[in-house]
Amino acid sequence: MNALAARRRHPAAIAILLMLGLLVTGFAYAAVAPQPAKAESSSAEDVAAGKQLFQANCASCHGVNAEGRATGNGDKIAGPALAGVGAAAVDFQMGTGRMPMRAPAVQAPRGQVQFTQDQIDQVGAYIASLAPGPAVPSEEDVDASKGDPAKGGELFRVNCAMCHNFAGSGGALTRGKYAPSLMGVESKHIYEAMETGPQSMPVFNDGNIAPEDKRDVIAFLKSVEDTPQQGGHALGSLGPVTEGWFAWFFGLGILIAAAVWLGQKSA
């Protein structure tokens, strides 16, 4: 007992116990933590073709091997490293015309798609071959008809409405950035945005929002698109900003016009 007590009082005992605790915690987390999505297997031909397309169209910003590239003064990143972003990020960025980026800006705007879907898939296969990452979702994953719009609306208001507006119409952020409108966006691109977190958007992986919950969010947004505006013009669904502007501009304009007309008539 005296020898055991002496070991407990040894100066290294606390450090050893802490290290053992950290090791046990690390192994336990590795066992239960959700694993990153792995890209679907692609042929060597697709990977090789995607690498050629990448080096011809993307390497000037992202580096020859997608390692990222800094600007001339080295204090900013011209293009981030792409290992681990997965085919889903490639499909979103290139499938919405945001990449290749036309000119340096605080945010890549949506534009005309420059590549065919086969070419986008090939670039995605090359990026996915560099490191595991989110794969392009299946048709079932993004099928809005299988989702619950009511549940999706709750999830959207809790996680997305503060940036994208309660109706998905978008909104302004800081430093010239903005949350784009989600109206008219393809279902798979909405899913991919949640998976990969483009621009200032946080990443909602399967540990944060389950795949079926992502489908519910898509179902909600599509229901908003399909719902007729029974109360009249939606004014962009931007809330009191456009409604107040309409009231001041047209309401006061009508009152001023009426006052001028009455004044001229009395004269």
From TrEMBL:
Residues 1-30 form the signal peptide. The keyword Oxidoreductase does not apply. Its main location: membrane. It comes from the Bacteria. It is a multi-pass membrane protein. The chain crosses the membrane at residues 245-263. It holds the Pfam family Cytochrom_C. Heme c 1 binds at residues 58, 61-62. It catalyses: a quinol + 2 Fe(III)-[cytochrome c](out) = a quinone + 2 Fe(II)-[cytochrome c](out) + 2 H(+)(out). Heme c 2 binds at residues 160, 163-164. The cytochrome bc1 complex is composed of a cytochrome b (QcrB), the Rieske iron-sulfur protein (QcrA) and a diheme cytochrome c (QcrC) subunit. PANTHER family: CBB3-TYPE CYTOCHROME C OXIDASE SUBUNIT FIXP (PTHR33751), CYTOCHROME BC1 COMPLEX CYTOCHROME C SUBUNIT (PTHR33751:SF13). This is Cytochrome bc1 complex cytochrome c subunit.
